[in-house]
Amino acid sequence: ANAMLLAGIFFLFTSFGFVLNFVNQTWIYVPWAILFALVAGVCSMAWAYAGFRRLVWIMVILLPVQVGVNVLIGIMMRKQVPAYQQMDFTREAITDKLVIEGMLAMFSIITGYTLVVGFIRKEGARIFATTAEVKLAAEVHRALVPVISQKLGGYEIYGISIPSGQIGGDLVDVAQQGRQWTAYVADVAGHGVPAGMIMAMVKSATRMRPPDGAGLPVLLTDLNRVLLSTSAPNVFVTFACITSVEGGNLRFALAGHLPVLHYRNRLRIVEEKLVRNLPLAIVPDTQFEDDSIECEQGDVLAVLTDGLTESADSHGQELGLEPLKEVLLTLATNPLPQISTALRQRSLQHGKQVDDQTVLLVRRGLPV
């Protein structure tokens, strides 16, 4: 495709060289006119190649080379053509010259146009196929990461993930086993199609082994082993999960993820709950730890991805957790979808979205 485009540029600018010969007030015989036109075509092709590749050094060299070649051809032409008084300016000679150069110019225009159109058709078909595949992948992504709104075991759970593009690497999900459930968020490094593929692997691996009430370290160990054996060396995943246990309380585990924000309804404060573990898919045989959360009636737990906290303003200052904690403290009694929307709006007020943004909210209601 690149060769086709460059060839099209060559022929189009060769025809431009012939047109310049038409308007030139100096008589130029046909062979020299062809030579000037070919130089114009070759130089235009070199300019285009350097521009496409952003090779500034070629552009710097090309300008004096092009000027020098044209000057050299002019000197050679003046030495080898007859004196001006001896030139053939008959009507037949002028007509032959115009016909030949005109036909060559038409041939160059048609050939260049055909090659450029062929390039556009070829690239259009390729881009259309790629776009169709991306749209299909986006539909699969929406099916894999739907909005979550459930009530399980006295808890209200809401989760939503908004990718920065058509396909994201964030995942929010709830896995249920009997009366126990596990809500989790995964954030694959990067975004786009590669991150989306890893995200689908994480969901499949997690769903294959729904954890019991005290099995979060085992779950993380299994996920770590699976990801290390199937993903690229430079891929890692941060993971945060909350699971119910007997008695209505919760346990949680983090693998390189942001702290869980805990709104305590009785005290009207927001605390950060943290367990320090490495992200998944970095070190084999990593030992993971979990911890418990005493969640009282009206308490809200929030798990966020760094797409919200790392939004930056015009000075490069990131938002951080504190403004989001203030939003949670102010709106903790509102419906969970409203809290989620307010958290994202606070992030967007600070800076535009450049990464996937995911929110998981868990609130304890009346016992069932």
Summary of the model, kept short:
The protein is α+β, with helices and mostly antiparallel strands and 368 residues long. 50% of the residues lie in helices and 19% in strands.
Number of E strands: 11
Helical fraction equals: 40-55%
H/E order of the elements?
A: HHHHEEEEHHEEEEEEHHHE
N-to-C CA distance: 65 Å
Can you list the strand order of the major beta sheet?
1-2-11-10-7-8
What form results from the Cα inertia axes?
elongated
Unreliable parts: none
Strand content: 15-25%
Rounded to the nearest angstrom, the radius of gyration is 34 Å
Question: On the 0-100 scale, what is the average pLDDT?
Answer: 84
Q: How many individual helices?
A: 9
Q: Give a quick account of the main beta sheet: strands, pairing sense, barrel closure.
A: 6 strands, antiparallel
Derived from helix and strand composition plus strand pairing, the structural class reads alpha+beta
Describe what you observe in this structure:
A 6-stranded antiparallel β-sheet has the order 1-2-11-10-7-8. It has a 5-stranded antiparallel β-sheet with strand order 3-4-5-6-9, with helices on one face. β7 and β8 form a beta hairpin. The model has no long low-confidence stretch (mean pLDDT 84). α2 runs antiparallel to α3 (56-80) and α8 packs antiparallel against α9. The two termini are 65 Å apart. The chain is an alpha+beta fold and 368 residues long. The chain has helices spanning 2-23, 30-53, 56-80, 91-144, 193-208, 216-230, 306-309, 322-331, 336-350; strands at 148-152, 155-162, 170-177, 180-188, 237-244, 250-255, 260-264, 269-273, 291-293, 300-304, 357-364. The longest helix has 54 residues, at 91-144.
